Structure formats: C-alpha cells, structure tokens
Amino acid sequence: MSALPLAIAAGLSIWISLVIGEPLTVAVAAFAFLVIAMLADLFLWKWIGLHRCKSLRSRQASIFAGFVCVIILVSVSLTHWPLRFAYRLSRPSFDQIARSLQGGRKFEKPLRAGFFFIEKAEIYDLNGKVCLWTNIDPAGRTGFTQCPPDDVQFNLWSMIELDDDWQFVSED
C-alpha cells in the first residue's frame, strides 16, 4: 500500500476539520477519505504500489507513513485536534473581538479572527452570548460562542467543548 493516497486523505481530513468543524461531517468525511484512498491505492497499485520501492528501507518508510496517515484520519474524527489547535492559536483574537462586542462595537463586515473567517460577530439576541459565526446558513448557524460548556443556550445540532470560555456550536 502506498502512503500517497492516505496522505492526501489525511490532509483533506485536517482541512475539513478546520473549515467545517461540525463533528459528524468531519467523521463522515474522514471515513469517506479513507475508503477513497484505499480504492485509489488498489487502482493505482501498478504505478504507486510498494513493489515500486527499490529498497526495504523505503518500503518500511512507506508502510510507516501509511499507518501515521490512518492514525491522523482516526484522531481527527475522534478528537477534532486541528480545530482545537487552530482555536488555541486564535483565542487572543476571539477574546479581543468579544471585548469589543461587549463594549458596544458593531462588526458590519466579515472579519478574520486568527485562523478563522468570521461571517458575523454579534451578541446573540436570544441569550446574550458572544457569537462568532463562521457560517450563517439560515438552516442553522455554525461558529464559536463565549459561554461555559454547561450553559450553552442554543438549539444545538452539535457542540465541541474547547475550554471553559469558548465552545464550537452548530445550531439545528
């Protein structure tokens, strides 16, 4: 088995976690990417298979890389570590925007908060929580909200607890 299709699948899985974030979508996408990578490996075996590796060391490296890619695919779908890591790096921007909103500032245009593109920043009318929406689809918004994990007052489809102050929510 070649590691190339698995590496592409792992990279796409990380990207989906960062862009979409919604847990079920990430898990389904990671599984689909794994299946597609394995099928690609079967169809492309003649050109990228292990038999193309000239030495034992390169075969071992390819097998090891394949296992690492599978571990990445599984870990992304179970722990959402790319989203959590990007959030940690973006947290100062989130806090700054939240303070601005609480101080009365309005954000009329989309903005960038660290690694994330915020389509709408607001204090939510229904519960008074700071919300940084990354997707404002009328069927259900997705984004970050500043509230403790036990006080998330939204009609939730899913939620990822990020820390004691911020949560990633998908509304139903």
Description:
The chain is α+β, with helices and mostly antiparallel strands and 172 residues long. The protein has helices spanning 3-19, 23-43, 45-48, 56-79, 81-102; strands spanning 111-113, 116-118, 120-123, 130-135, 142-146, 156-161, 166-171. The strands form two sheets. It has a five-stranded antiparallel sheet with strand order 3-4-5-7-6, covered by helices on one side. A hairpin with a 2-residue loop joins strand 1 (111-113) and strand 2. Helix 1 runs parallel beside helix 5. The chain is elongated. The mean pLDDT is 84.
List keywords for this structure.
51% helix; five-stranded antiparallel β-sheet; 7 strands; alpha+beta; single chain; 172 residues
Rg: 20 Å
What is the distance, rounded to the nearest whole angstrom, between the alpha carbons of the first and last residues? 41 Å
The shape, in one word, is elongated
Mean pLDDT: 84
Largest sheet: 5 strands, antiparallel
In N-to-C order, the SSE pattern is: HHHHHEEEEEEE
Tell me roughly what share of residues is in helical segments. 40-55%
Low-confidence stretches: none
Number of DSSP helical runs: 5
- How much beta, percentage-wise? 15-25%
Structurally, how many domains make up the residues? 2
Query: How would you write the strand order of the largest sheet?
Result: 3-4-5-7-6
Count of individual beta strands:
7
